[in-house]
Design a protein that fits this description.
By secondary structure, the chain is α+β, with helices and mostly antiparallel strands. The chain contains four helices and five strands. The chain has helices at 3-21, 24-42, 46-74, 79-82; strands at 89-92, 101-105, 108-114, 122-130, 133-137. The chain has a five-stranded mixed beta sheet with strand order 1-4-5-3-2, with no helix packed on it. Helix 2 packs antiparallel against helix 3 (46-74).
């Protein structure tokens, strides 16, 4: 079997593994095998093919590492996106003895508390959700 076919098959197997695992580092190895396949098709020696594959794979892994590190620094958790309930309207009809209320929201019963003070009957907006409790504001 020709060397370029071996490199091509190896690249496709690694690509299949990458699709199942989802690791960006395997893409660097796929790129190394693909470049080695091109060099094998041109007719370079097996030593040169292995060297080129190693250099491209190492460069790809380093690039992926730097890229992931920079992305991680830039991405900060956005608390506003995590709280989809913020601003939704809740009607408080009955106050419990603990100063909170049991309200119906999204088809189930929730314990609701006012952010500052005690609840009264009326219409409130959700400030945030703490576990199974709704924190409300007027």
């Amino acid at each position: 079997m020709e060397n370029y076919l071996v490199w091509l098959i190896l690249a496709l197997v690694l690509l299949g593994m990458e699709m199942m695992i989802g690791s960006i580092y395997l893409l660097a190895l796929v790129a190394g095998c693909a470049i080695a396949c091109i060099f094998a098709f041109i007719g370079t020696s097996f030593t040169v093919q292995c060297f080129i594959a190693a250099v491209v794979a190492i460069a790809g892994v380093i690039t992926a590492f730097i890229f992931r590190r920079n992305i991680r620094k830039k991405l900060t958790p956005n608390q506003e996106c995590d709280n989809l309930d913020k601003g939704q309207i809740i009607t408080v009809e009955k106050i419990d003895s603990d100063g909170g209320a049991t309200v119906s929201y999204r088809g189930s019963k929730w314990k609701a508390y006012l952010k500052d003070g005690h609840l009264e009957k009326g219409i409130y907006h959700i400030e945030k959700v703490e576990g199974t409790r709704l924190i409300l504001i007027k």
